[in-house]
Amino acid sequence: MTDALPIDAAALVNGMAVRARAAAAILARAPTERKAAALSHAARILRGEAAAILSANADDVARAEAAGLSSAMLDRLRLDEKRIAGIAGALEDVAALPDPVGSTIDRVERPNGLCLSRVRVPLGVVGIIYESRPNVTADAGALALMAGNAVILRGGSEARASNRAIHDCLVAGLEAAGLPADAIQFVPVTDRAAVGAMLAAQGLIDVIIPRGGKGLVARVQEEARVPVLAHLDGINHLYIDRAADPAKALALTINAKLRRTGVCGATETLLIDRAYADPAPILAALADAGCEVRGTPEILAIEPRAIPADAEDWDTEYLEAIIAVTFVDGLAGATAHIAAHGSHHTDAIVTEDEATAEAFLAEVDSAIVMWNASTQFADGGEFGLGAEIGISTGRLHARGPVALEGLTTYKWLVRGTGQTRP
User: Fold this and answer.
1) CA nearest neighbour of 299 among 283, 314, 321
2) Is 146 within 8 Å of 97 (Cβ atoms)?
3) What mean pLDDT do residues 38-44 have?
4) Average of pLDDT values for 320-347?
5) Which of 4, 28, 143, 348 could form a disulfide with 370 if both were Cys (CB 3.0 to 4.6 A apart)?
6) For the domain 9-231+389-414, what is the CATH code?
7) pLDDT at position 6
8) Would the pLDDT of 2 be above 70?
């Protein structure tokens, strides 16, 4: 299908959703072994098609560079042999995970003899709208499939060739395992009207998951008539407490900010306890590594290469080699700053004081809160979940890395022996 021709977005998406609903009914009853086999086949096919995928990705990157895409977006878009291997490995990891479908959450017997249990069931048809990252095509398809859902994927136009190449491998895996190809569908056009049609597909799509920038998520939340599981900004904080080990503080700061600046788990704001003995080496190490330090006057007085921070810096997800830095008055100052400026994604403390650490873990209201660990561990694969759809920063249904369990709901099963209600 070509984007040069006018499309009826509603007809396109609704047709996909009807086919997905039929596929979802089959997947809900599919044995674990068959779903796992589909992913294993897809991983093998993906490895075999690595050269073709990299060629498609090179075309996407060239177009993105010509369009002036930011370095962070280019990093998310670009594939290489190592990333291809990682995508294939993630498919196999998901295939090896315990199947949540049909598992019992809890069971209780009432005084009247009724036996009640809650069991996990698929959500049904999941729509995923995302930007830049081709690996999301594989991760989202794999997780949705293993959780018994059919999925409709709408990737960003900047990654259209890469996404289609990866999607072809997933479909081939489904067919090799005897599962319907409609279980994982990819919207074949880049027309933005298709996004609107997905958001309006109430009764056809059961949940929408956006994964992308603030503009995308805002549009989804504003327009959706379908329930939304949101992934918002990663305005993540690393707080260096007065009792932090200097070596850990330095290593964690550099890793949390600079390992990969374009991921949502990257630290964007560094908070330093005013009572911390020697912050200068940390600030110097950031600047030496090519990171732009934006700080308050106190920070500028210590690190001459730093530049003044403005009010917007405390509320910005840079996804670049830029970090905002300020001093705070102890734990109370750190938690107050995070409450005022954080996005409830991931926040971390560096300290050797267990009581302070436990207070931080309890008081910070984020999906992921860490002690003496890099915020870059905010990732479903690192959490042992195989992969993730995204990091949910909300409070309902699923929170943190959304993986298999986050793509299920539950139903009540009631077993009786003839009880009637008095």
Assistant:
1) 283
2) yes
3) 98
4) 97
5) 348
6) 3.40.605.10
7) 53
8) no
